[in-house]
Design goal:
This protein has a 6-stranded mixed sheet, with helices on both faces. β2, α3 and β3 form a beta-alpha-beta unit. It has 5 helices and 6 strands; from the N terminus they run αβαβαβαβαββ. It is globular and about 65 Å long.
Length: about 170
């Protein structure tokens, strides 16, 4: 009888240590142009709606965006549907965001970043994206990371997808 309690305690601790966190990472949608890089274009607004349509039933718990209008506008349709507040992160300090996301357990989050930060965030979380860069005209990449933590460490599953309709040049 005495051995059962420690075994049950160990089992409970082991199960508590196991978790899966899902992280969706996207770049902000299309901006108006280089002279007005703050707002989304009409195509960008449609892509933001497409993102909301894509992720609305995925169990998103938190949405992280930079404080720039274009990232916030990309996430707002989903945030409104799910009644979630946007959480700002500093775009130049992706390591702080990575640390914060790494502390999240058994949740599903969306991160909206920029062409020069999305891949760094994915790599910082332990993924190995096949893309080396996100080109200036690429707005449809959707990186899905499943961070599985278990008794014997953690594994990262990465799925690289696209969403929304291609834009016309």
């Amino acid at each position: 009888m005495r051995l059962r309690f420690p075994a049950l305690l160990f089992l409970a601790f082991s199960l508590a240590a196991c978790s899966t966190t899902t992280v969706y990472i996207v770049r902000h949608a299309e901006k108006v142009d280089e002279t007005d890089s703050t707002d989304l274009s009409p195509a960008g607004k449609q892509r933001a709606i497409a993102l909301a349509d894509t992720l609305a039933k995925r169990g998103i718990d938190s949405i992280f965006t930079t404080p720039y209008r274009r990232t916030r506008q990309t996430a707002e349709p989903l945030a409104q549907r799910l009644s979630l507040q946007l959480v700002d992160y500093a775009p130049k300090l992706t390591s702080a965001l990575v640390d914060r996301v790494n502390r999240i357990r058994t949740k599903t989050v969306l991160v909206v970043g920029h062409s020069n930060t999305v891949l760094d965030i994915a790599r910082g979380l332990g993924a190995s994206p096949t893309l080396r860069t996100i080109e200036s005209g690429d707005f449809d990449n959707l990186f899905v990371l499943r961070i599985k933590r278990g008794l014997f460490g953690r594994t990262i599953d990465l799925s690289e997808k696209t969403y929304g309709q291609p834009t016309q040049p």
